[in-house]
Amino acid sequence: MSDSFRWPAGADPFRFLEALDSKRARAWVDEQNARTRAALRDDDAYRALTARLAQAYLPRERPVIPTRWRDWAYDLWQDDLHPKGLWRRARWDDWRAGRPEWETLLDVDALGAQEGESWVFEHDAILYPDGDRALLSLSPGGADAVVVREFDLVQRRFVDGGFTIDEPGHHTVGWIDRDTVYVSWDRGEAHATAAGYPYDARRWVRGTPLADAPVVFRGEPGDISAGAWFDPIDGRHVAWRSVDFFDAHAYRLTDAGEWARYDVPTHVEVGFWEGWLVLEPRLDWECGGVRHAGGSLLAIREQAFLAGSRELTTLFAPRPSTSACTWTHTRTMLIASWLDDVHNRTMLWQPRQREDGAWTWDARPFDWPGDAQIDVEPVEATLNDDVYVDVDTYLDPPECWLADLSDRAADAPSRRLLLDRPPVRFDAAGLVVRRANARSRDGTVVPYTLIGPRDALDAPDAPDRADGRARVARPCLLSGYGGFAIPNLPGYSDALGIAWLERGGVAAFAHIRGGGEFGPAWHVDAQREHRQRSFDDFIAVAEDLIRTGVTTAAQLGIEGGSNGGLLVGACMVQRPELFGAVLCRVPLLDMRRYPKLHAGAAWLDEYGDPEDPREGAALAAYSPYHRVREGTAYPPLLLTTSTRDDRVHPAHARKMAARMHALGHERVWYWENTDGGHGSADDLERAESDAAEFGFLWAHLGPAPARG
């Protein structure tokens, strides 16, 4: 795209759609929803698919996989009668023995009906070690904004006069002790950062007005956010200042009652565990005369670090084929996970102090049979080394296992307990998974993953083809994300399997730059003014799918949400002839106004500043809302968003639909859910949305030939 492109002059005729609930905007939304409902949500096929998807989504008889807090198992149970959920608990030992007696703590649906609000249960923070009180965060309609209420777990009711914040906002609240909490209080735009988040922390004592609670830590208005928290296990008070979306300052409260900043660059994330500092540099970092690659995982005793030592232990060092490393921990083990060529790898680290006082780390891999993505999470890190192991493959239902990492054979089949293996929801017979590579415009090799029928994915001369038939082009749904260092990892999907693969479609997942598949450099390469590289990568994958005969342009659909919505919107505008349909969910599309809409100012470090001459030119060159043109034949487009989405403003999708209609593009449909935030509020709503979206795709890309 040309860097000479600039923002158009003149007023934006659809700016009125940024007013979230104005009468004029609501009338426009109602008109669009009625049009889309008639086209996509009012026939027998839609209703049948909705019913089947809802059957797959709602848990019904599925085993419960609870969270553990000390001796209790907690669960949010959702079913047909309780779509928002019953928050409940049982004794952990009873659950493990298979005879839990569930005690309902809060009926979220009943609370919503009583108060006339569509509450979504977001988070609970239980008082340690007493365990009889919790701070609950409830979201109206699934938005990021929450209210906070203190809950009595013994009396099973909200605490009168307790810690309560009734006005929804981006609040964070955490216990210090029974009568004191840290709170980052969202008091509204005048007291928030440009991104809409609080930038101070208050120490709030029970029985006192929140407005009188003293500010004990303060960031800067130019930060993204700031706050403080207390770790009751080791008595640590920590504060942070997020200076942009990726980088932050970390502070500790000294014995003198002062906040002292940890002496590391802002791109180094600071974590804490059992007297260790666990450091994660996002960029290359020279420390103590040693250069550590971005994406490494490093450790040092905190007291040694504070005394001036910079002798860091490298637990993980990335390679070109690996992602950055993430970590969690159990009682005695640090669990490090990363991607190697988009396949999950996990290593267990255990520190050990030698007789001479020096520390060393013992390591062993946590292997799992087969080619699966695994996620290892502690069950209750304050108690033991038990972990949940979520196992996800492309064509088999996900499994959840319970394992004890203190057993060195915990990954052996005989030493782990299967907790959940859902029933098969779709017919995967004859489906295969393949990897392929495309070459982007600048020569970068871009991998992608394919799922579909064998005759669609295997070349005619593939050695395991015995029937001699040629490849058959099929409808193909290509998804991508390419932002914020988040990898696009395919996995088992009820919706994709039932509504797409089972009917003969092919699914493709592009691992493009901007994502996190291959470490920090893979992300940085498409950051800010280099965003076009993400789009070039995605277009290269689309072209490769067509070149190799997997699909045709008329049969190729693309889909993405949030940053992925920006991706598919930009690619549609740049290469409209390449696609047969576009599904664009909760997208960013107006890249001139994005910092002024909801949380957009938090993403300046990802996309760049539209007011900066260089970065603004790059944004203007691809901003879909500004690049769409009259007279160009664009593929059919379905835009979806939510009124309650307080992360990505629905105005992005609203204005794009309005502009395209004004330019004469009739094959544009718009749907705005009044609930759900940046995602669906409940499973039934998700089933309805998915059924409409796949109906749209088949209407414009199908039908598929019979599966061979």
What is the name of the CATH class of the domain at 22-54 and 427-701? Alpha Beta
What is the average per-residue confidence, as pLDDT, rounded to a whole number?
Answer: 94
CATH superfamily of the domain at 22-54 and 427-701: Alpha/Beta hydrolase fold, catalytic domain
Count of discrete alpha- or pi-helical segments spanning 4 or more residues:
15
Number of strands: 39
Helix content: 10-25%
* Overall geometric form: globular
Low-confidence stretches: none
Based on secondary structure, the structural category is alpha+beta
Q: Strand arrangement, largest sheet?
A: 32-33-35-34-36-37-38-39
Specify Rg, calculated over alpha carbons: 26 Å
Stated plainly, the CATH topology of the domain at 22-54 and 427-701 is called: Rossmann fold
User: Per DSSP, what share of the residues sits in E-state strands of 2 or more residues?
Assistant: 25-35%
Looking at the overall shape, the CATH architecture of the domain at 22-54 and 427-701 is: 3-Layer(aba) Sandwich
Structural overview:
GO terms for molecular function: oligopeptidase activity; serine-type endopeptidase activity. 20% of the residues lie in helices and 31% in strands. By secondary structure, the protein is α+β, with helices and mostly antiparallel strands. The chain has a domain at 22-54 and 427-701: 3-Layer(aba) Sandwich (Rossmann fold), CATH 3.40.50.1820. The strands form nine sheets. The protein has an eight-stranded mixed sheet with strand order 32-33-35-34-36-37-38-39, with helices on both faces. The relative contact order is 0.10.
